[in-house]
Amino acid sequence: RCRRREPPEEGHEHAVLPRVLVDEDRHRGAAGERPHRLADRATLGGAQIDGHYYCPHSPDAAVPKYRVECECRKPKPGMARRAAEELGIDLERSVVIGDRWRDIAVARAVGCRGILMKTGYGATEALKPQPGLSADAVCDDLIGAAVWLLDHPEP
């Protein structure tokens, strides 16, 4: 999410757990390093990351304990709602920036704006619009999304 003068949080789905590519303890170790790297980079730009959330579930997981239909797996809004509750986030004033249409679906589900970035999966996702779902903007990268947000203050 991106809010002026307020720090961001991040949310991810991690398919490595349900597919048994790594065990949960090893994943927590690796996932624990990622927020520190991102936090360090954010600090260089004068921002901070308040929380790191991930969903280890998948309906077709090889590991039974991860084979669940949950509310935290995108496009469902559970992860965003949990972060909002825990961190005091005003979702109506927030923005979801992601590289998949399911990220934009989360934005719509929680009532905030959504920006599709053409990084990662975004380049091909942008070529495949989803019926009934549109992004507020499609930007080349995170800097482009930030510029768009500065040009389009809160509605």
Describe this entry's structure for a reader:
- It is a single chain.
- This protein is of the alpha/beta class.
- It has helices at residues 24-44, 78-87, 101-110, 122-125, 142-151; strands at 10-13, 52-55, 95-98, 113-117, 137-139.
- Helix content is 35%, strand content 13%.
- The chain has a 3-stranded parallel β-sheet with strand order 3-4-5, with helices on both faces. The chain has a two-stranded parallel ribbon with strand order 1-2.
Descriptors for this entry?
three-stranded parallel sheet; alpha/beta; 155 residues; 13% strand; disordered N terminus; single chain; 5 helices; 35% helix; two-stranded parallel sheet
Topology of this structure?
Layout: E1 10-13, H1 24-44, E2 52-55, H2 78-87, E3 95-98, H3 101-110, E4 113-117, H4 122-125, E5 137-139, H5 142-151
Parallel strand pairs: 1-2, 3-4, 4-5
Number of helices: 5
Radius of gyration over C-alpha positions, nearest whole angstrom? 16 Å
Shape label: globular
Average pLDDT reading: 83
Structural class: alpha/beta
Largest sheet: 3 strands, parallel
- Kindly report the oligomeric state of this protein: single chain
Topology as a string of helices (H) and strands (E): EHEHEHEHEH
- Give the DSSP E fraction (strand runs of 2 or more residues): 5-15%
Helix content: 25-40%
End-to-end distance, in Å?
15 Å
Give the tally of β-strands. Answer: 5
- Name the strands of the widest sheet in spatial order: 3-4-5
Q: List the uncertain runs.
A: 1-8, 13-22
What's this, in brief?
35% of the residues lie in helices and 13% in strands. The chain has five helices and five strands, in the order βαβαβαβαβα.
